[in-house]
Amino acid sequence: MNFSHLKYAIIYVCAAFVICGTVFAFSYQNNLNQLSQTGAVRIEQARDRLLGQLASFRRLPNYLAKHPMIKAAINGTAPLDQTNEFLLNTVLISGANNIFVLNSTGAAIAASNSNDIHSYIGNNYATQPHVRAARNGRLGFYHALGPSDDIRDFYFARAVSLTGAPDAGVVVVQVNVAALEFEWRVDEEVLAFFDTDNVVFVTNRQSLSLLRDMDDLPPDQDMRRYSQHDLSPFFKHTKTLLFGHEVWNFENITELPSHALIVSKFIPQIEMTARVFLDTKNAIAAARLQALLVASVLALIGLGMWALFQRRQRLADLLAIEEKANAKLEARVEKRTNQLHAAQHQLIQAGKLTAMGQMSAGISHELNQPLAAIQNFAESGGKLLDRGRDSDARENFNLITQQIDRMSRIIRSLRAFARKEKETIEPVDLQSVITESINLASVRCERENVIINRHHAASPAFVMGGQVRLQQVVINLITNAIDAMSGQNEKIINIDLIQTVDDVRLIIRDNGPGFKDTARVFEPFYSTKDIGASKGLGLGMSISYGIIGSFGGNIECRNHPEGGAEFTVILKPATEKLAA
Fold first, then answer.
1. What are the sequence ranges of the domains in the chain?
2. What percent of the chain has pLDDT over 70?
3. In this predicted structure, what is the pLDDT of residue 473?
4. Rounded CA separation 107/121 (Å)
5. Does domain 423-579 have CATH number 3.30.565.10?
6. 221: which residues sit within 8 A by CB, 6+ positions away?
7. How many whole angstroms separate alpha carbon 529 and alpha carbon 534?
8. What is the Cα–Cα distance from 333 to 324, expressed in whole angstroms?
9. According to CATH, what is the number of the domain 66-179?
10. For residues 365 and 544, is the Cβ–Cβ distance under 8 A?
11. Residue 100 pLDDT > 90, yes or no?
12. Whole-structure pTM value
């Protein structure tokens, strides 16, 4: 090999190293991006799961603060034994850990654990943050350790008002964190909720609870929630910033990956930061594999070039044969390139067809209701024409036109929802939305003997939202309720509308069998209907959840204690419209 060939070989090797390094870095960055998106989804799921578990406990002190038994205990007109028994029964029903009642001085006078060694009765909690917050008119929230180091609790408190004494006492609900964690499924990813002291307070790995991050500790920490308790040892780690992502390197902690991508999000409802620890091992392995594949290809090309140089040097008389071989090689490369382009085109087309199929399924699911209404109006219009009632028939045809317009708006709304387009949010009268939705569902209700009981005030209820999208949600809830009651003799749907200063709540309840798993109601493609029973794919509730969320509201689902499923749509009131 002459000097020029050696020079080219060195340049080629250096270029190959640069290319392989670039491929590794680019692939690793893409893998971390995908892993980060997965972590964000896991955090959202964990946040919704935890907040959903705490939702009922947040409402419990509001209910107890108004209960006559609690008020009687505070003003001294009820025996404390009866109050303790009432609190114990409430704990057994609600699933809370403990409930106790404080008097005006902050001393516990009644508790569900009155017979326990560590009873709250007689202790004074006036200085506790959640008690002070409750006395100031807010819902008190606090977290601290229980009687022993392995017990972690959330506390919710609400002031009890008596005549002439707005803060006569406080009722406190204690929720055990371990009981909440017990209901979680075993996830592959490690997830933990860190409080403001960087202590792991809630996690899906029991061995990580109360471990403390020793990095970035605030200089003045309020450790009252851990008073008289020794925290578990610190866990050490080093931080690395890779492509805009935070990677922690751990030592001697078997529960956590040695190299973990950290995705964090602050949860203001519980004043904690959720962190998911994602193992980067597979991301590194995939990037390394792609780099090795590129290196192999480059090595083969380099060997081929080296052989070509040697052949040209030693066999100059076979130049024509070599040129023919090169042309054949180029033809093969072009053929393989064309095959790769064809395969790529087929993959793109398959992706397009899949997306179109999913969108078509969602659109057909949402358009079934107006199509059914159009069919009913058309049949009624034909009968009215046969009877010579032209004006009434014309009204039916006008209604058909309105439904067609509504179908167009539904398609635009669904398209905007799929593309996350911004749509106008304005004051909408929820009363008229409910009325229109009931009218559209009335034909089916009459056909299937469904009774709709609507309880509401006569005044309008203006909320922030979109007319068509709100109607989609209400109609979807009504039709799902009708489907759930299929096969029953008595079919009843109750619709209630509750207006407060903070929100407007639409409650729709049926007397069907309810849900086996209310936590999955809003998951995409989740359906309780038998296969073949409906053309839907379980997208209705997921779309409805997204629509209400885009208005800044929320949908809650539960099984009513008296039977049936109950959906609560919570929306922001349009205060400026109401004031007008």
1. 66-179, 327-418, 423-579
2. 82
3. 86
4. 8
5. yes
6. 196, 197
7. 7
8. 14
9. 3.30.450.20
10. no
11. yes
12. 0.48
